Amino acid sequence: MDLLKTLVDKGLRRELPTREEALAVLSTSDDDLLDVVAAAGKVRRKWFGRRVKLNYLVNLKSGLCPEDCSYCSQRLGSKADILKYTWLKPEQAAAAAGAGVAGGAKRVCLVASGRGPTDRDVDRVSQTISAIKEQHADVEVCACLGLLSDGQAARLRDAGADAYNHNLNTSEATYGDICTTHEYADRVSTVQQAQAAGLSACSGLIAGMGESDEDLVDVVFALRALDPDSVPVNFLIPFEGTPLAAEWNLTPQGALRILAMVRFVCPDVEVRLAGGREVQLRSMQPLALHLANSIFLGDYLTSEGQAGQADLDMIADAGFEVEGAGETTLPTHRADVASAGCGGGGCGPCGDGGDGGDKMAAAGDEGGSVEARDVEAEEGASGTPRQRSELVTVRRRGPGTEVPPNA
Ligand code: SF4
């Protein structure tokens, strides 16, 4: 296919595809799926080999958020039966982080629900970062605390944070459909503040909220223009008790096309397979490793992922290897820029974390080839309809519980 040859050539040269080319990837047929994965896989291997970086989420503060991000189980008015707790103590967070590091994670993501941190919250998180770095000097720490105020990014950097996550989540045109308590521009500003303070920026999206292909391409091009070092690609986890509970819009094939599109648009950026991979990719998860070079190990903020050992087995079985602590994730041309403490690399991207985080219109948007089909239920082996909602398991282990974390 000429399209794929063009995209591979561009990806290997770190050249931006056109909008039309990105849209065309999302419109390819299931018959062409393996060709699309193979093509984007060439670009992935050029810049990241067969390495998979493991990241580990620690939910420092869960639930009771005053914001109304429709995708989020922690939102204002959420009826989701999630764990709710206030700030973990530094030693509790460090213990949870330690489990992730022992499981092979080289980055720990410290996430807190809320619009954004107070200065006192920044102090708390700074103490937590110190506690983690005392025990694991080499681990990368990423903070994800919501919208930042002046000076807070620099304080986090000074406390030892390596990175800051704040997702754009969806296109600017549709942002008002998923959240009314803050704006798309607020999110852009926070990513820019993190970059200006010398933090490695992490910013991504959530697919499956009813958006069109055009929206997906818009947000990925916006991310590329922002130029974060890592781009988490979340697939909506439709939590019961949230406005998007019925939005089972994705197919595994469509999710893989989205990941391939992101890889072509951001060829040399850490593309992270994030929240929703188990429930939306299901048995097709291993193919996603040919596209993403980074995943979360274990559980998400408020939902459970597959067992950490199953993550490691999947990586090994698919012929990939866990990236070691001593290995540099980013290609040299980007890593050098990142270590110099300035933004701008070769590519050009809080679900506030990994839970899929933040909503939208119903499936089947005109022009959207994010395949909308009747996926709310399917026949199980016994002939009993299997409800998709049964795939979402609320987290009942790790931080906020007495049960050991999954790592
Ligand atoms: S995504 Fe973040 S800001 Fe939005 S409701 Fe959830 S915790 Fe609050």
Shape: globular
N→C terminal distance: 41 Å
| SS-derived structural category | alpha/beta
Bin the helical content.
Answer: 25-40%
CATH superfamily: Aldolase class I
CATH topology name, in short, is TIM Barrel
Number of strands: 12
Number of domains: 1
CATH top level assignment: Alpha Beta
Major sheet summary line: 10 strands, parallel
The radius of gyration over CA amounts to: 19 Å
H-E order: HHHEHEHEHEHHEEHEHEHHEHEHEE
**Residue runs with pLDDT of under 50 for 5 or more positions:** 342-354, 356-381
Q: What value does the average pLDDT take?
A: 90
CATH architecture: Alpha-Beta Barrel
Bound molecules: iron/sulfur cluster
EC number: 2.8.1.6
Organism: Streptomyces alkaliterrae
Pfam families: BATS, Radical_SAM
Cofactor: [4Fe-4S] cluster; [2Fe-2S] cluster
Write up this protein.
The strands form 2 sheets. Strands 1, 2, 3, 4, 5, 6, 7, 8, 9 and 10 form a 10-stranded parallel β-sheet that branches. Strands 11-12 form a two-stranded antiparallel ribbon. The chain is built from 14 helices and 12 strands. With 407 residues, it is α/β, with parallel strands linked by helices. The chain is 35% helix and 13% strand. α1 runs parallel beside α3, α4 packs across α5 (119-135) and α9 packs parallel to α10. The protein has a single domain (2-325, 347-363, 380-391), classed as Alpha-Beta Barrel (TIM Barrel). It binds iron/sulfur cluster. Iron/sulfur cluster (SF4) is lined by residues 65, 67, 69, 72, 74-75, 113, 115, 146, 350-352, 357-358.
